[in-house]
Amino acid sequence: MKPFYTYKVHKKLDTASVFIALAVSFFVISCKSNDPEEIKAITEMQDAPSLQVENLETIMLDSGRVKHRLITPMLIRYSNTEEPYDDFPQGLHFLSYNKNGEIIAQIKCNNARHYSKKKLWELNNNVEAINEKGEILNTEQLFWDMKEKLIYSDKHVKITTKTDVINGVGFESKEDLSNYTIKNIIAIAEIEE
Questions:
Q1: Which strand (E) or helix (H) includes residue 63?
Q2: Along the 193 residues of the chain, how does pLDDT read in single tens digits?
Q3: How many C-beta neighbours within 10 Å does residue 109 have?
Q4: Distance between CA atoms of residues 73 and 87, nearest Å
Q5: Phi/psi zone of residue 192: left (φ > 0), alpha (ψ -120 to 50 degrees), beta?
Q6: Which helix (H) or strand (E) holds 135?
Q7: CA distances (Å), origin 105, targets 45, 74, 89, 170, 187
Q8: Gap between the Cα atoms of 145 and 130, Å rounded
Q9: What is the DSSP letter of 58?
Q10: How far apart are alpha carbons 42 and 181 in whole angstroms?
Q11: What is the Cα–Cα distance from 178 to 193, expressed in whole angstroms?
């Protein structure tokens, strides 16, 4: 009987040895250095868009009423990046409405990005914004901080009112384009009727 017992103990040691050997093998295999091709593939996956939509028109409601409307030829979403964003490579048209359904402000541009975590819009190239009074802001770059409810630019701006055309560098206002400030006024020209 004693040899049978020894054989059984021996078999347990062999099974344990096999498991240890397999574990060490998997550990050694998994610890190989990263292949540059694998790293490149992972990086490219992170840079790839997670969503692409053409001819998008979306409406944002507040208590059943249309508050905002966004129209764009193309939206490309990058949600796998460190700083997720929506890209509008062909521009957008954003409209804001009052409680009566009337347009109170609108912005158009040829290119835009929306950084979702920061709640920040970056509008570029041929930016035009119109407020409720009909005043028109033109610039090449405009930022809209939705958290602070602020619109600003450090670029050249032109504001056209019913009576004046104001040119300057640097701009800041509330998000509805009211109470604006031009930091460095270059010229003011009166509009003749």
A1: none
A2: 444 433 344 444 455 554 555 555 555 555 555 666 655 555 555 678 888 999 999 999 988 899 999 999 999 999 998 899 999 999 999 999 999 999 998 999 999 999 999 999 999 999 999 998 999 999 999 999 999 999 999 999 999 999 999 999 999 999 888 888 999 988 778 777 6
A3: 23
A4: 11
A5: beta
A6: none
A7: 38, 22, 22, 20, 25
A8: 17
A9: E
A10: 46
A11: 24
Residue 124's identity, in one-letter code, is N
- Burial of residue 25 (CB within 10 Å: 0-12, 13-18, 19+) is exposed
Give the DSSP letter string of 127-148: EEEE-TT--EEEEEEEEEETTT
d(CA 95, CA 67): 8
Could you tell me which of 65, 135, 128 has the C-alpha nearest to residue 102?
Answer: 65
What sign does the CA torsion over 186, 165, 176, 118 have? Answer: negative
Helix (H) or strand (E) holding 48: none
The position carrying tokens 């295999």 is 29
Looking at domain 47-190, does it have CATH number 2.40.10.220?
no
Contacts of 120 (CB under 8 A, 6+ apart): 114, 143, 144, 145, 146, 147
Reduced to 3 states (helix: H, G, I; strand: E, B; else coil), residue 24 is helix
